[in-house]
Amino acid sequence: MKHTIQISDVPECFLECSAVHICPIGYLSHLVLPSLFRQGQASTITLTAASGYMSPSFWEEIPGVLSEITAFITSEKDIRSLFQGRQTDLWEMAAILANYGPEYILIETTSQGYCLFDGISGKKWRVPNYPSIAVDPTGCSNAFAGGFLAGYRQSYNALEATLRGSIAASLVLEGSGPFFALEAMPGLIDLRLSALRERVQEI
Predict the structure, then answer these.
(1) N or C: which end of the chain has fewer CB within 10 A?
(2) Integer CA distances (angstroms), 180 to 69, 142, 143, 188, in order
(3) Which CATH number does the domain housing residue 126 bear?
């Protein structure tokens, strides 16, 4: 399995994309790819942290990873690992990371859904997981990231984007295979969004 993507690996046509999500890969890839896409047409870049560098030993390198992205997505486990011995409050951790550049920090918690921190306004929200019947968690985090990016580009509202990410993850969780979520009943997404909006908590 290849863990590092070189600049030469990126097809030139990819640089014409206006929005990009970078999945968890190696540290060096996460360091160079945002800058590469910014030199192209990308105005929105989201990135999901890779566990390999979310540790205290990479603390000095983290600002370089975050400096050119729109939103940073991480798990509670990984962010706590990164801040080990420095901070224990999730919102304080998010605020510190936001100072390095991202407009938004999103933390997938172990039991309370998603924490959304707006680095510009300082606003904080908890967006719960939609109550799904869990069948297969494979791909849920990626579905969240994709739902967030699509939602953000549609509305440029990070809270709405987080809701859409949570709903996307809930659909993927309920089945197996990469195309399962595409079979969702018409209108189901809107119904779930309406139900989930009522459960959002502004902190």
Answers:
(1) N
(2) 30, 14, 12, 14
(3) 3.40.1190.20
**Residues of the chain above pLDDT 90, percent:** 75
Residue-wise pLDDT tens digits, 122-176: 999 999 998 877 676 777 899 999 999 999 999 999 999 999 999 999 888 877 6
Compute the distance between CA of residue 108 and CA of residue 123 in angstroms, rounded to an integer: 17
Residue 60 within a domain:
yes
Whole-angstrom distance, CA of residue 166 vs CA of residue 143: 8
Q: Which amino acid is at 141?
A: S
**SS3 of the chain: helix, strand, coil, percent, to 5:** 50, 15, 35
Q: Is residue 79 part of a domain?
A: yes
For residue 150, with 0-12 CB atoms within 10 Å meaning exposed, 13-18 middle and 19 or more buried, which class applies?
Answer: middle
Looking at the 3D structure of the chain, how many domains does it have?
1
Whether 1 maps to a domain, the answer reads no
For the record, the structure tokens of 141 come out as 């985090």
R_g of the chain computed on alpha carbons: 17
Q: How distant is the alpha carbon of residue 103 from its chain centre? A: 12
DSSP class of 203: -
- Is 145 part of any domain? yes
Question: What is the distance in angstroms between the CA of the first residue and the CA of the last residue of the chain?
Answer: 41
Q: Which residue has the tokens 């936001």?
A: 98
Q: What is the pLDDT of residues 34-69, one digit of tens each?
A: 999 999 999 999 999 999 999 999 999 999 999 999
